[in-house]
Amino acid sequence: MSTAEGERLQKVLARVGIGSRRQCEDLIADGRVLVNGSVARLGQRIDETHDRVEVDGVTVGVRPDAVHYLLHKPAGVVTTAADPQGRPTVVELVPAAPRVFPVGRLDFDTEGLLLLTNDGDLAHRLTHPSFGIDKEYLAHVEGRPGRGALRTLRQGVELDDGVTAPATVSAIGDGVLRIVIHEGRNRQVRRMCEAVGHPVKRLVRSRIGPLTDRTLAPGEWRVLTRDEVRRL
Q1: Going by DSSP bridges, is the β-strand pair 68-73/101-103 parallel, antiparallel, or unpaired?
Q2: Per-residue model confidence (pLDDT) at position 4
Q3: Which of 2, 77, 105, 204 has its CB surrounded by the most CB atoms within 10 Å?
Q4: Which helix (H) or strand (E) element contains residue 203?
């Protein structure tokens, strides 16, 4: 619902990092911006809490209260908002307000990067299989995987819920693999490695799409920059 009391569209787009005010005006003038499925007009005002904005077919989060946290999840923390067993949760490691939720999941024993947000549009884009967002993991495994095991991991592993999609896999150390996947199956990397005879001893997610941060220690978090949100 567009409203005369709302904020001008080009100002909103500039604020969320799409470009300068002038660049956003050009995007609108070129017909590349939609509001609720209709081509936007220059000077149009929007209700940021209700209107859906798309740029070049991609939904843009414009909620004024949207927050995006990048957390380095420690092992021994569950990826949920609450746990009936009383275990520590990832939402307890970031500010309590506004309320956020984890995007995707990391299992109890897995460490590494996790995004938490109240931006539903972005969360959908990151988790829906059609977008194929890469996730990179460092897996410390038992033994030293040979060429056959690496080839199987790359081509697809037969699991009880079907063959995995091709993955990018490289050995970067003695019993250490870098694995990049774009699926989101439960405990997928651990199951893949176990299937080829090299169970995981420690698993760390080091990248989500374009997001990486080697400075975050386990349990630490930071707010994403506007440019990081835009690239996501």
Answers
A1: unpaired
A2: 56
A3: 77
A4: strand 200-208
Distance between CA atoms of residues 12 and 141, nearest Å: 47
Q: For residue range 172-193, what is the model confidence (pLDDT) as tens digits?
A: 999 999 999 998 888 999 999 9
**Which DSSP helix (H) or strand (E) runs through 171?**
strand 168-173
The answer to which of 31-35, 131-135, 141-145 has the lowest mean pLDDT is: 131-135
98 DSSP assignment: S
Q: Two tokens at 164?
A: 């995995």
Contacts of 173 (CB under 8 A, 6+ apart): none
% of the chain at pLDDT higher than 70: 98
107 catalytically annotated? yes
Phi-psi region of 32 (alpha: psi -120 to 50; beta: other; left: phi over 0): alpha
Q: Which amino acid is at 1?
A: M
Asked if residue 68 lies in contact with residue 111, where contact means CB atoms within 8 angstroms, the answer is no
Q: Amino acid identity, residue 18?
A: I
Query: Among residues 107, 174, 213, 227, which one is catalytic?
Result: 107
Q: How far apart are CA 168 and CA 95, in angstroms?
A: 35
Tokens at 41, concatenated: 């007009």
The phi and psi torsions of 11 (rounded to 5 degrees) equal: -70, -40
- Rounded to 5°, the CA angle 111-114-192 comes to 55
